[in-house]
């Protein structure tokens, strides 16, 4: 698996803390002022990037009354596709102000383009990366168009078979994109926790030799935090100023204080992964004393034989390890040993010498 690639000046990969993306999506609720306020709040959470979506209803679908264009279940039931995208779009004319605000705040902002005109717009605004949504993963001409800009691409894999993912990656690479990440994704809104199947990330990494992460549509922060523990280098999570204000994606979005907690938990999980390590670590050294060791449990006179009646394995751990108990039993004390004193080899007569001194022992 490749160890890293960069978006702006931030390295992304398993050797670095998880890259956390605030997905604003449609949570601007049709207001540029709210969008800018959302960007301000997102930047304050400690996220690494803010992401928007770039499309118009006319580039997404048709204004058509046929039943195929009507949404009958889920959070958007009762709307047509055209109505949903009309409500949820981030108008192209907002984009310059959005990118300018992100630059003022010093935070990376990029977007998901849904057609060639959106990709061209984003490239002209200096977007440092592109995201491909799950539903567009099979749109190979779009992927080729986006890839030719040579920016890092993050592809969501919801709904996709391995063959479809392979085709998308091959298309991006042939079109000139060398830095690709895959986000495991469950394209349900909200996504049930039991459908998360986070072990899929490891499979994606091995199959395609790319950096992997999670685009999470579940409620709360637990699934995303678990994903980091399982190797996710990127976490994308929807973000809103307030779920109570509604909006197409509000139900499965995090509020500012929740995203702050997500940032903290994901970074803690990444630190906890660490590396393979055996033996006492620096943080443990002072507690070595609480191991067991061999100690005198009664006063022992010089020449007295060690037995289970006068020595035992107890805490603290300043004496001989308990594994030497059978070696010490039957030996004699070389000096007086007070009750509670730890044993070391200087106070234990050599068993070999004792055997030589016994009647009948041969030299």
The CATH homologous superfamily name of the largest domain equals Aldolase class I
Distance between the termini: 64 Å
Helix count equals 12
β-strand amount: 15-25%
Q: Would you count the extended β strands for me?
A: 12
Structural class: alpha/beta
Concise structural overview:
By secondary structure, the chain is an alpha/beta fold. The chain has helices at residues 32-43, 57-60, 81-88, 95-105, 116-124, 140-147, 162-174, 200-208, 222-229, 256-273, 325-328, 351-357, and strands spanning 5-7, 10-12, 19-23, 49-54, 108-113, 130-132, 153-156, 180-185, 211-216, 234-238, 293-296, 311-314.
What does this structure look like?
This protein has 363 residues and is an alpha/beta fold. It folds into 2 domains: 235 residues, Aldolase class I (TIM Barrel), CATH 3.20.20.70; 76 residues, Alpha-Beta Complex (Type Iii Antifreeze Protein Isoform Hplc 12), CATH 3.90.1210.10. The protein is 31% helix and 15% strand. It contains 12 helices and 12 strands. The strands form 3 sheets. The protein has an 8-stranded parallel sheet with strand order 5-4-3-10-9-8-7-6. A two-stranded antiparallel ribbon has the order 1-2. A two-stranded antiparallel ribbon has the order 11-12. α9 links the parallel β9 and β10. The C terminus is likely disordered.
């Amino acid at each position: 698996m490749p160890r890293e690639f960069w978006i702006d000046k931030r390295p992304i990969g398993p050797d670095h803390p998880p890259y956390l993306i605030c997905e604003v999506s449609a949570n601007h609720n049709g207001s540029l002022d709210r969008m800018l306020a959302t960007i301000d709040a997102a930047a304050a959470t400690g996220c690494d990037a803010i992401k928007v979506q770039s499309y118009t209803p006319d580039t997404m679908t048709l204004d058509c009354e046929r039943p195929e264009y009507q949404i009958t279940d889920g959070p958007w039931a009762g709307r047509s596709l055209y109505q949903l995208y009309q409500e949820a779009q981030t108008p192209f004319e907002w984009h310059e102000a959005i990118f300018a605000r992100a630059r003022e705040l010093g935070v990376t902002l990029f977007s998901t383009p849904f057609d060639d005109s959106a990709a061209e717009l984003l490239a002209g605004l200096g977007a440092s990366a592109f995201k491909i949504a799950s539903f567009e993963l099979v749109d190979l001409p779009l992927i080729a168009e986006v890839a030719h800009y040579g920016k890092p691409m993050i592809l969501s894999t919801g709904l996709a078979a391995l063959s479809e993912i392979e085709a998308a990656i091959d298309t991006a690479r042939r079109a000139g994109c060398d830095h690709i990440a895959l986000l495991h994704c469950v394209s349900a809104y909200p996504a049930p926790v039991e459908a998360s199947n986070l072990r899929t990330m490891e499979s994606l990494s091995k199959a395609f030799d790319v950096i992997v992460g999670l685009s999470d549509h579940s409620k709360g922060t637990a699934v995303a935090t678990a994903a980091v523990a399982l190797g996710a280098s990127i976490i994308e999570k929807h973000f809103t100023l307030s779920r109570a204000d509604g909006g197409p994606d509000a139900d499965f979005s995090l509020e500012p204080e929740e995203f702050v907690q997500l940032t903290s938990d994901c970074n803690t999980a990444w630190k906890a992964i660490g590396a393979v390590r055996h033996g006492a670590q620096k943080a443990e050294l002072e507690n070595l004393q609480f191991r067991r060791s061999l100690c005198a449990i009664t006063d022992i006179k010089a020449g007295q034989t060690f037995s289970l009646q006068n020595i035992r394995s107890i805490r603290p751990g300043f004496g001989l390890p308990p594994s030497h108990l059978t070696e010490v039993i039957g030996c004699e004390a070389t000096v007086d040993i007070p009750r509670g004193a730890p044993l070391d080899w200087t106070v234990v007569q050599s068993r070999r010498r004792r055997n030589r001194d016994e009647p009948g022992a041969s030299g």
